[in-house]
Amino acid sequence: MNKTIISLAILGMVAIPMTAQETYQDTKMVDNDLNGTARYVGMGGAMEALGADISTISSNPAGIGLFRKSQLTLSGGLVTQQDAKNKISFRGSDLTINGDKTNLSFDQLGFVWTTRMPSNSYLNVAFNYHKSRNFDQLLTAANQLSYASQNKQTVRKYAYGVSLKNKEMANYMWNAVDAGYSRLLQYRNVDEKGQPVDEYAYMNASDYLFGQYQSGYIGEYDFNLSGNIHDRVYLGLTVGLHDVHYKSASTYGENLVNNAIAGSEENLEITGTGCDIKIGAIFRPIESSPFRIGAYVHTPTWYNLTMKGNASVYLNGLKDTDEKMGPNNGTQNNSTSLEYKLYTPWKFGLSLGHTVGNQLALGATYEYADYSTMDNRVIDGGYYDYDPYIGGYNYYDSSSSDQTMNEHTKNTLKSVSTLKLGVEFKAMPDVAVRLGYNYVSPMFSKDGYRDGSLLSQGSANATSTNYTNWKSTNRITAGIGYTFKKFFADLAYQYSMTNGDFYPFMAYYDNPKDPSPSIEDNLPTASKVSNKRHQLLVTLGYKF
User: Fold this and answer.
1) How far is CA 146 from the centre of its chain?
2) Positive or negative torsion for Cα 495, 499, 503, 508
3) What are 73-102's pLDDT values in tens digits?
4) DSSP, res 64
5) What UniProt keywords apply to this chain's record, in alphabetical order (predicted)?
6) What is the model's pTM?
7) Residue 51 buriedness (CB in 10 A; 0-12 / 13-18 / 19+)
């Protein structure tokens, strides 16, 4: 057992009811899936210039302007995670996670209403629901540790704050996990003058196990107005409402070098709503050619979110413990509830589309978004304003940017480029075959980390310490479609793969100015993880 020489009073968790969130949690709100109708997915989503598919309502709204008939569509399917494990073993230890690697999914429902105008023009109105993010995922990781542990992080974190003679920093970075360990690790000692002082012990670990099951979704409700001018220029506007439902249950355990065990469990829920505006255009530069160019812009999604989290920290198997002297075996629970705002970055897209007769359609799309510019916002007040239309008062939140967390976001996240390619070939007039490909560049910096030492309320209210730096995403899609009079049915398959590096906690150095190794450092060992997912999607539609 290693002991520190830091004297301090025991600190409880800083529970702040209204605050901002932190970078790694925020990325759950911006990392969209490729989802929608089976035709859209089968072509890799590369339809932002081709249009005439209701899924373009959420990417390039002008795509709705190419409809010539009204349409109703319904989509759903099956999503399964390859190589997902409900049980993981490492060095004789086992960990079981409750969760399903295969789930049914309701993915899309929408309609387009077309109205013919003079001069071969149309005015179209559309509504569409689609699942922009499916959170269902099993994640497991295991590895060895050397002179490191989650409980050591609590002690090193406080030591770092005190070494900078910044008590405010030490208090702010005291999150739910630290609060639990602090009560278990504290022990009574005497100083050089024989006076009793409270100190901390920490115990290094030899290895760790981690398991997590995430579930839920973000549902997007899009309302669109679009049309075309002389069948050459197509314009569209979409207002989107986002509905967030995220849950996570995770377990982290360590085998300590003194044959005891320690770890933490987290239950997390994030709910809320957001809204955004999307505008787009498609035009045919050559009147006699079907070649099209599309462009679109998305405003940030302005989220109002609530997070409820609980951290349960345990320490078991210690010998010769003393309730008065400590450290002690036991379990400590801490909870928090946060209300905060998040503004995602602007998104820009450019697309190309071309058709060859009625047999072949080709599409390509490039999207860009700078996720380092996400705005984490603290709700710092509110006010009432009288509304004469309702004869009463409306309440409005006031908020301000969390500059410290935003700086961390800037250093941790990067701009992301997405490339979509798709092709559709009609082997027969009523049968279409589709192929698609996506590449999404990494969002996380290679050296990014979840910093629990920030002077930010987001760090202070964390209920876990782990994080994953996910790398690029590759998607391969295929599909087939069949039309019978006014009815049509489409089937699509999608395979997506993302690799990443999992860390159980952030790294701490005993002397930040001296990077040479020291047994007082707390350096976690990364584990290679992956998220490989298969999706089977069916769309049924009716044109009228």
Assistant:
1) 30
2) negative
3) 999 999 999 989 888 888 888 888 999 999
4) G
5) Cell outer membrane, Membrane, Receptor, Signal, Transmembrane, Transmembrane beta strand
6) 0.90
7) buried
Q: Three-class SS string for 75-138? A: EEEEEEEECCCCEEEECCEEEECCCCCEEEEEEEEEEEEEEEECCCEEEEEEEEEEEEEECCEE
434: which 2 tokens? Answer: 């589709």
Retrieve residue 497's tokens: 């793969």
459, 462, 465, 470: CA torsion to nearest 10: -80
Angle between helices 150-163 and 176-185 (to 10 degrees): 100
* Residue 315 three-state SS: strand
Phi and psi torsions of 342, nearest 5°? -140, 130
Q: Which of 170, 147, 166 is nearest to 157 (CA)?
A: 170
Look at the alpha carbons of 512, 517, 523, 529 in this order and tell me if their dihedral is positive or negative. positive
Question: What CA–CA distance (Å, rounded) separates 544 from 531?
Answer: 41
Instruction: Count CA atoms closer than 13 A to 375's CA, side-chain side.
Output: 17
118-176 residue pLDDT tens: 877 889 999 999 999 999 999 999 999 999 999 998 887 766 655 555 655 555 567 89
User: Which pair of tokens denotes residue 396?
Assistant: 């409005």
Q: Which two tokens stand for residue 321?
A: 């413990």
Pick the CATH number of 19-144+211-306+332-543 from 3.30.420.10, 2.130.10.10, 2.70.40.10, 2.40.160.60: 2.40.160.60
